[in-house]
């Protein structure tokens, strides 16, 4: 088998592949949740959310393929079983729950934000610890996509006194940034 000679040691590639497999697992959990909410959502926002989530799960399907192929590019194998994904994912499925439309949005905001935080850590790890600028760059673009989705979803629930955790809170007195 030819040795991979792209300027990264086996240890560096392994470290990056571990990050990527976790990101892959989380993307899969997010894909399944987004699809389930696309099916289950009810209420006056049905059409908007149903269609928005279709766009999101289509984007996630592409993302998943890109992450898996990046893993192969680095000489690794992507986790490819539901069992394996659930074992290493950082997102929770919350099986058996059907939240309200607002609750679904809040749940997905929380999940996309968690993915952004994970990616931010992985980008730093790829660049600083493992010297893999290529993967850092790839994950940076991915992080920006999740940031944008989180913003769009957050915009649905802002002003309804509901935080991403889904809990009712007092928003009076919150200082907006940039105003
Ligand atoms: Fe559909």
UniProtKB/TrEMBL annotation:
SUPFAM superfamilies xrefs: Ferritin-like
Domain Ferritin/DPS, residue spans: 18-158
One Pfam entry name: Ferritin
Gene Ontology MF: a single term: oxidoreductase activity, acting on metal ions
Similarity-based family: Belongs to the Dps family.
PANTHER family found in the cross-reference section: DNA PROTECTION DURING STARVATION PROTEIN, GENERAL STRESS PROTEIN 20U
Protein name: Ferritin/DPS domain-containing protein
Source species of the chain: Richelia sinica FACHB-800
Lineage: Bacteria, Bacillati, Cyanobacteriota, Cyanophyceae, Nostocales
């Amino acid at each position: 088998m030819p040795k991979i000679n792209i300027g990264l040691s086996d240890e560096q590639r392994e470290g990056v592949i571990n990050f990527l497999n976790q990101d892959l697992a989380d993307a899969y959990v997010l894909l399944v949740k987004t699809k389930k909410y696309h099916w289950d959502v009810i209420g006056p926002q049905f059409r908007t959310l149903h269609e928005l989530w279709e766009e999101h799960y289509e984007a996630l399907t592409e993302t998943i393929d890109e992450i898996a192929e990046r893993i192969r590019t680095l000489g690794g194998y992507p986790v490819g079983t539901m069992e394996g994904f659930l074992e290493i994912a950082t997102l929770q499925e919350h099986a058996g729950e059907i939240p309200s439309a607002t609750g679904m949005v809040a749940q997905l905001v929380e999940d996309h934000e968690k993915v952004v935080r994970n990616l931010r850590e992985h980008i730093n790890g790829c660049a600083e610890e493992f010297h893999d600028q290529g993967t850092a760059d790839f994950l940076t673009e991915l992080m920006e996509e999740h940031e944008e989705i989180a913003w769009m979803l957050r915009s649905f629930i802002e002003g309804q006194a509901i935080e991403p955790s889904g809990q009712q809170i007092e928003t009076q007195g919150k200082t907006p940034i940039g105003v």
